[in-house]
Design a protein that fits this description.
Length: about 200
């Protein structure tokens, strides 16, 4: 994240923006007069906004509000795509490829009841702090919530096939404890696994 502020903005305002601004963003806030040639490099470096001096506080507020709104839309999009059964196309989007990689790792370890953030970190070659923050900023969910949801959705698909017992499905999706499996299933679908029919 690249943030350059050379502007006297109240600490409370910056604290609120920083707290709300959890997704990655690049900002270039100019402190000199307008220069059309300086704008292009800023956007090439993925800046979300380009503001020139003298700063217009209303414009700054509007830019921040729009970026936060866009980030919420993207969180919903990536969160929903994460739980779809198909693999999402990469299209050069680093978040899309990250989500696809995360999903594939979880699916590859689906029957492993010990699947944790440590395994995800090792396979994705990223620290726990970075992984947690990246997942949370992209999807709005924690790694544990994502693992649980993918497990339950796969359990639902397996139960729908009518080829496996509930106990087999429980172990195939990484649940060692029947109660935790039942509770998670009821939380997601509103019925017991034994009562579920597609």
């Amino acid at each position: 994240m690249c943030i350059r502020f050379s502007l006297a903005i109240s600490r409370a305002f910056l604290a609120r923006v920083w707290a709300d601004f959890s997704a990655e963003a690049n900002w270039n806030l100019r402190t000199t007069g307008p220069d059309a040639f300086a704008q292009a490099p800023s956007f090439k470096h993925e800046a979300n906004a380009y503001l020139e001096k003298p700063f217009n506080i209303e414009l700054l507020n509007s830019c921040i509000t729009n970026i936060l709104r866009r980030n919420e839309v993207l969180k919903k999009h990536y969160s929903s795509v994460l739980f779809d059964s198909y693999r999402m196309p990469d299209n050069g989007d680093p978040n899309a490829s990250f989500i696809d990689q995360l999903k594939q790792i979880i699916l590859n370890h689906l029957d492993n009841s010990e699947l944790s953030i440590d395994i995800l970190c090792e396979e994705m070659s990223i620290s726990q702090y970075m992984l947690y923050n990246k997942i949370k900023s992209i999807t709005g969910k924690t790694p544990g919530q994502i693992i649980k949801k993918i497990r339950i959705q796969n359990a639902e698909a397996l139960i729908g096939k009518n080829q496996y017992s509930i106990k087999e499905v429980q172990y195939m999706t990484g649940f060692n404890n029947p109660k935790s499996f039942r509770d998670a299933f009821v939380e997601e679908f509103g019925v017991l696994p034994s009562e579920y029919s597609v």
